[in-house]
Design a protein that fits this description.
The complex is a heterodimer of chains A (94) and B (801).
Chain A (H helix, E strand, L loop, with lengths): L1 H25 L3 H25 L6 H24 L10
Chain B lengths: L3 H23 L6 H4 L1 H18 L4 E8 L4 E7 L1 H24 L7 H20 L3 H19 L6 H32 L4 H6 L1 H6 L3 H15 L8 H4 L5 H10 L4 H13 L3 H23 L4 H23 L1 H5 L3 H38 L15 H15 L5 H18 L5 H4 L2 H25 L17 H19 L1 H16 L19 H18 L1 H4 L2 H4 L6 H23 L4 H22 L15 H19 L3 H21 L3 H23 L15 H23 L7 H4 L2 H5 L4 H9 L1 H23 L2 H7 L1
Antiparallel strand pairs in B: 1-2
Helix pairs in contact in B: 1-3, 1-5, 3-4, 3-23, 4-5, 4-12, 4-17, 4-22, 4-23, 5-6, 6-7, 7-10, 10-13, 12-17, 13-15, 14-15, 14-21, 15-17, 15-19, 15-21, 17-18, 17-19, 17-22, 17-23, 18-19, 18-21, 18-22, 19-21, 19-22, 19-24, 21-24, 22-23, 28-32, 29-30, 30-31, 35-36
The chains are: A mainly alpha (94), B mainly alpha (801).
InterPro entries (chain B): CPA3_Na-H_Antiporter_A, MrpA/MnhA1/PhaAB, MrpA_C/MbhD, MrpA_C/MbhE, ND/Mrp_TM, Proton_antipo_N
Organism (chain B): Cytobacillus depressus
Pfam family, one (chain B): MbhE
């Protein structure tokens, strides 16, 4: 029963990833795509969590954390790139 | 006396080391040649002491281990044959060194180079004729090739010298390598490296299937070295060497190394019809070819070169004829054929004497007039009387006239040829009649060029305006060496049996062991009115007539097409092979990575696929397959889609993203297959690589930012599908052929053995920590590499300066 419920969750997560992917491909502007990618990251986190409950293991909880960090760093990097043109700025020489 | 002979072989090498120091110390006060002359003289004196021993039928054997585990020893084996050669090398060597002291200027020439090369050659030649071990023999054989190469190109500033040196190098080394394989075959057949032991195993060798290949390869070596047809072309070009070298190497010693080899191995291969026909046939062809070509030469040295070729052919054909003696075993026929061997050895000695002296005289003419061109010379008789006398002695000996030694050996040559007709062997009946005719024609041409050599140079009108120097007689020191040889030429005619008893009989015993007693032979200058004498008279008459009408018929030479000459063929083939390899290399070395990958993958398909197919390895669906769950199916579908997206995407950005997606899907695979560590790493690495790809994409030059699909190419499609199929098949086949249980059970004890609950990490840092260390190293190197690539822009920095 609980497994069925988890599978349904996974299905809807997959659906929302697909919807976000549509935005990634279609999205008229870059910020749209970045937001969609961020969204996919969150959905992936949820998916891995559901999967590890399904597989009855806690070995994948690290991956959840990792995806969270990567998705955050990636979004920040893109944001900086959009805002300033570079990701890592050089120190200004006074 | 122990090992004295061996020491003598190495004396020239020791002296070759000392020579540059002597040169530095004494040049230009004392001519370096004076020191060098000690070497051949001492060897000559030593060898003279052995003559009584050898002529009694004894032999001397000295051996020092070199590579004992392989049975390679440095040996000195002295019998009649090697004694003749040893004396020739040391005797002519001494005279040539003496001559070179006056010929080579001590102020202008690099004498240390000259004498070092010459001593190297001398030592190599001693080693060659005294070696009993075939591998050591080969070592010295190649050393003669190399030192000859150095000597031909002694004046390396000249283009012709370099060309001649390269040509002789290519041809003789080619023959040398063929000979090496022949020698190895011989040692395989007889299971020994020593010639004497091989001789005791002759019956094994004769019955072996390798007999014929070994013979042909060995003969290739001998023919290239001794300038036999068609390998004779290097010898005329080797005339670019200084004249002492031409006299020494290219008339008296090195070109006879092939003769020595044939003589040495006659006892092994002789007695078979192949050996008989190849050796005597090639010899006769060379004889005719050399003599006909010699007539047409304008350069005196080239004339002598062709005459050397022709005379070497004569000696070779005699050796071939004589080998029939082994076929008959003991008996009268055998003795009659053995005469040919004696004749060949006799002519070998005679040829060395008169040809050495002729070369030296030509050198004198060149030295004193500044030219060797027949068309510019003439009327030197009264200006250079001694040189004229020496030339007459040498030339008439070469033409085979009495009272010179060439007459005797020429008569013996005719005798042997006629014997071969009277007592035919190996199907001689068919061609037997041609052989004396060919020999006779060659003798006529020999006579003609000998007359050209004498009369075109010394008689006629003197043309001082055509030559650079004022012609005068050479200094006495330069005349002594050829004079000594000329005295020998006459001396041998009057006392031939001294040579016969002391040298020819022991040599015959060495070449044909069946005649261990020797054949009671006396060489007579006058042997009655017989066919041989009439042949000689015919040669003189006919030759004189042809010489008188020389201008009438030499035009015939112009009709011979230039494209058919051997030199032309050699040049063409050299150019052709160069062009062809250039073309072939250019054809497949395109410089395009794509083509090389095509080759690599193509080979992979052919070899892996072929091996799979031939070994019946293509099997699927064994009992080892696990079931497929729905997650795996869905993931696989997603991966296939993203894979195709990479291939078919229009822009590169999409391809990068699809590649990233593929990477993340792989990490999901790791999740499903319960490999959390792998999944973690895969995620991080995929992120970083995607970011790097994006970086590369962003920095593409604007001009080249193509937004186009990958072009479809059929080869690529076929190859990629092929590789995919082969690898898939291989993976499936591997899964079906598990031969052993896996060793993972051992690693399940990681907690008890290593105190770690995480097996993967325990393997990485404990069980197999070495791999991890090296992978860390790989990452370090990659990091440093990237850093240096970015920071160290040497090319750009140079451009700024």
């Amino acid at each position: 029963m609980f497994d069925q419920f988890l599978l349904i969750c996974l299905f809807f997560l997959a659906l929302s990833i697909l919807a976000a992917l549509y935005r990634v491909i279609k999205g008229p502007s870059t910020p749209d795509r970045v937001m969609a990618l961020d969204n996919i990251g969150v959905n992936l986190i949820a998916g891995v969590a559901c999967l590890s409950i399904l597989l009855r293991t806690h070995a994948f909880l690290d991956i959840i954390l990792l995806i969270g960090i990567l998705s955050f760093v990636g979004t920040i990097a893109f944001a900086r790139f959009i805002e300033r043109g570079v990701v890592i700025e050089r120190k200004r020489v006074h | 006396m122990v090992f004295l002979l061996l020491f003598m072989i190495f004396l020239p090498f020791i002296f070759a080391i000392l020579t540059p120091f002597l040169y530095k110390l004494f040049a230009p006060r004392v001519h370096t040649g004076w020191f060098v002359a000690i070497v051949p003289l001492s060897v000559f004196v030593l060898l003279l002491q052995y003559i009584p021993v050898i002529s009694n039928g004894q032999t001397i054997y000295q051996s020092v281990p070199w590579i004992p585990s392989l049975g390679v020893n440095i040996t000195a084996y002295l019998d009649g044959l090697s004694l003749i050669f040893g004396l020739l090398i040391s005797g002519v060597g001494f005279l040539v060194v003496l001559y070179s002291i006056y010929y080579m200027s001590k102020e202008r020439e690099a004498l240390h180079n000259f004498y070092v090369y010459m001593l190297l050659f001398m030592g190599a030649m001693f080693g060659l004729v005294f070696s009993d071990n075939i591998l050591v023999l080969y070592v010295f054989w190649e050393l003669t090739s190399i030192s000859s190469f150095l000597l031909i190109a002694y004046w390396y500033q000249r283009k012709n010298s370099r060309y001649g040196a390269q040509k002789s190098m290519l041809i003789t080394i080619f023959g040398g390598l063929a000979m090496l394989s022949g020698l190895i075959m011989l040692s395989m057949m007889s299971d020994s490296y020593n010639i004497r032991e091989i001789l005791s195993e002759v019956h094994v060798v004769t019955e072996s299937p390798l007999f014929l290949p070994a013979m042909i390869l060995l003969l290739l070596g001998a023919f290239t070295k001794s300038a036999q047809f068609p390998f004779s072309i290097w010898l005329p070009d080797a005339m670019e060497a200084p004249t002492p070298i031409s006299a020494y190497l290219h008339s008296a010693t090195m070109v006879k190394a092939g003769i020595y080899l044939v003589a040495r191995f006659t006892a092994v291969f002789g007695g078979s019809s192949e050996w008989f026909w190849i050796v005597s046939g090639v010899g006769l062809i060379t004889l005719v070819y050399g003599s006909i070509n010699a007539v047409n030469q304008k350069d005196l040295k080239a004339l002598l070169a062709y005459s050397t070729i022709s005379q070497l052919g004569l000696i070779m054909s005699l050796l071939g004829l004589g080998s029939a003696s082994l076929y008959f075993g003991n008996g009268d026929e055998s003795t009659v054929y053995a005469m040919a061997i004696i004749a060949s050895m006799f002519h070998l000695i005679n040829h060395s004497t008169f040809k050495g002296s002729l070369f030296m005289v030509i050198g004198i003419i060149d030295h004193e007039t500044g030219t060797r061109d027949i068309r510019k010379l003439g009327g030197l008789m009264s200006l250079m009387p001694i040189s004229f006398t020496l030339t007459i002695i040498g030339s008439f000996a070469m033409a085979g006239l009495p009272p010179f030694n060439g007459f005797l050996s020429k008569e013996m040559f005719f005798t042997s040829i006629l014997t071969a007709v009277e007592q035919p062997v190996f199907g001689m009946k068919m061609f037997g009649l041609f052989v004396p005719i060919i020999a006779w024609i060659a003798s006529v041409f020999t006579f003609i060029y000998c007359m050209i050599l004498v009369f075109k140079t010394f008689t006629g009108k003197h043309q001082p305006e055509k030559i650079d120097k004022v012609a005068k007689e050479a200094p006495i020191g330069m005349l002594i060496p050829p004079a000594i040889l000329a005295i020998l030429v006459i001396g041998i005619f009057f006392f031939p049996n001294v040579v016969g008893k002391n040298f020819l009989q022991p040599a015959l015993m060495a070449i044909l062991p069946i005649h261990s007693e020797g054949v009671g032979l006396t060489i007579k200058a006058w042997h009655g009115w017989n066919t041989e004498l009439f042949m000689t008279i015919g040669v003189v008459l006919f030759g004189s007539i042809m010489y008188i009408f020389l201008k009438r018929w030499t035009v015939l030479y112009h009709f011979f097409p230039k494209t058919l000459t051997l030199n032309h063929l050699y040049n063409q083939s050299l150019e052709g092979t160069e062009m062809m390899s250039y073309k072939v290399t250019n054809k497949y070395m395109t410089g395009k990575m794509r083509d090389y990958l095509v080759y690599i993958f193509g080979f992979m398909i052919v070899i892996l696929g072929g091996a799979l197919w031939l070994s019946d390895g293509i099997t699927f669906l064994g009992s080892n397959q696990a079931g497929v769950s729905i997650y795996e199916g869905v993931l696989l579908g997603a991966m296939v889609i993203s894979g195709f997206a990479v291939l078919l995407s229009k822009s590169r950005l999409t391809a990068i993203i699809a590649l990233g997606a593929l990477g993340y899907l792989v990490s999901l695979f790791f999740v499903i297959f319960r490999a959390p560590d792998l999944a973690l790493t895969q995620l991080v690495v995929e992120t970083v690589t995607s970011a790097l790809f994006l970086l590369c994409f962003y920095h593409l030059p604007k001009l080249r930012k193509e937004v186009s699909r990958i072009q479809f190419k059929l080869t690529n499609a076929v190859i990629s599908i092929g590789v995919g199929t082969v690898v898939t098949l291989l993976a499936l086949a591997v899964n079906n052929h598990r031969l052993f249980a896996s060793i993972s059970n051992f690693f399940e004890q990681s907690y008890t053995l290593a105190g770690a609950k995480n097996i993967v990490n325990a393997i990485l840092v404990d069980f197999r920590g070495f791999d991890t260390m090296l992978e860390i190293l790989v990452l370090c190197i990659a990091g440093l590499g990237v850093y240096t690539l970015i920071k160290l822009q040497l090319a750009g920095r140079d451009r700024k300066e």
